[in-house]
Fold this sequence. Notes:
- The chain is an alpha/beta fold.
- The chain has two domains: 2-224, Rossmann fold, CATH 3.40.50; 226-484, Alpha-Beta Barrel (TIM Barrel).
- Helices cover 38% and strands 19% of the residues.
- It has helices at residues 2-10, 40-53, 70-80, 121-132, 150-156, 167-176, 182-194, 231-235, 242-254, 267-277, 296-309, 323-331, 352-361, 384-394, 439-445, 455-458, 463-484, and strands at residues 14-20, 26-31, 61-64, 84-87, 100-101, 110-117, 139-145, 160-166, 208-209, 219-220, 258-261, 283-286, 312-319, 343-347, 368-372, 401-405, 417-420, 428-429, 435-436, 450-453.
- β7, α5 and β8 form a beta-alpha-beta unit.
- The longest helix is centred in the C-terminal third of the chain and has 22 residues, at 463-484.
- The N and C termini lie far apart (47 Å).
- Mean pLDDT is 88; it is low at 200-224.
- The chain binds 6-sulfanyluridine-5'-phosphate (S5P).
Amino acid sequence: MDECVERLLDVRALKFGSYKLRTGLVSPVYIDFREIFGCPDLLCQLSELIFKVSREAQYELVCGVPYTALPLATCISITHHLPMLVRRKEAKDYGTKRIVEGKFIPGQTCLIVEDVVTFGSSILETVSVLQQEGLKVTDAVVLLDRAQGGAERLASCGIRLWSVSTLPQILSSLRSRGRLDEDTVCKVLDFLAANQYESDSLANGSALPAKEQLGASEKIPRIVSAAALSYGQRSLLPTTSPFATRLLSLMEEKRTNVALAADVLSCADALALAEELGPEICMFKIHADALSGFDEGFHLRLVDIAKRHRFLLFEDRKFADIGSVVRRQYEGGVFRISHWAHVVTVHAVAGPGALLSLQEAYSSVDSGAFIVSEMSCQGSLAVGNYTQAAVEMAKGCRDFVAGFICTSRVTTDPSWVLVTPGVKFQEGDDGQGQQYLTPDEVIGRRGTDVIVVGRGIVNADDRLATAQAYRHAGWQAYEGRLAQS
Ligand code: S5P
């Protein structure tokens, strides 16, 4: 790498000075590897270094993280005759609707290629997309690791990171060649030290580092309330769990915060509902044990519909037992929940053991759980200290817990997603303890994020039009809230 470092400086892929980032933070370094697109020889040289540094990894395919790393992955693919995959940022809404282009067989192993890693979020996002397609991912390789904790974060998610160089190594190389003065080196090192990934940075009251896609070294200042940030911005926070990242960015792209509670009688009814209302929702919530006719074929069909209409599968299991039992309920039995559900619910009553067991058993890096911290039904005991203890418990499991089931803003930390059931256009109750709030009250005034609507849609004469009306109301309330803050 040493011989390329000066070239990187010359072509302005590395810039030192004072760069005001979108968030207002001033950074002493700016890295932009798009500058190398104009230098084919440098591009080839760097991709060869990437290939060499990761040669111990076992893989059959390569996939670049969009967009800057795509040419690097392409060079590796061509030079070493390795089939390449391209991950789309968004599925096409016509034709094949594929999110991963290229030829592969589920079960094959793919190496992820990236240009720069800061906190690892972009790599994790690509890992999760590939895993959804049945591919295995164990290794990722980058040209430059900024040494801000990304490698450790990836390791904690089971991904080994290989890097051609780190930012401190580059600084020392440039200093020894007389291309960088001592003062600049110190400034950058100080900046890196002050902007490390901390999985619990909010709990410590420190600032939140933003995800690398926001631009090199950007950092979001401490945010008072989740209500002030868009779903998309929150998906970029490094403290946001992989599942929450996926959910928030899906909500932003699809412009819906409606989760459908598909409380119907049979699997056939659930499939019909998913097919009809899938385009309107962000999550499809079921109680698998309350559906007649559950078998392997059902969840395969449901997964297929979820992929086509781009929503996430939510099994509302409300786990509440000792860790070893919960794990078996999640992985095995009739329902094999971990094989198809993107997210599940867990009661806080049994303590953190249940959560930790689920986290160990999850089958994809972006599976997650919502902790039930409040309930919508009358007389619920999940109030006060219990609710606060549930929120505290989540902090010990940030990579798996995506947020909370709640009826109020139980936390102001924007990394958590707040999901509220008991939503209908008409406030009131169902005569059996369920209490309803309107979309406007929930999203607009109480400041939670997702409305869970069941009978309000399922029992309507025109389910599609009603789902669209809830979608519209939920989104309007969200936009109104953003406009006010
Ligand atoms: O506190 C809660 C938590 C949940 S997950 N209250 C709830 O009602 N739920 C679920 O939301 C419940 O299990 C059901 O599936 C849905 C509400 O359905 P609805 O028909 O009353 O809208």
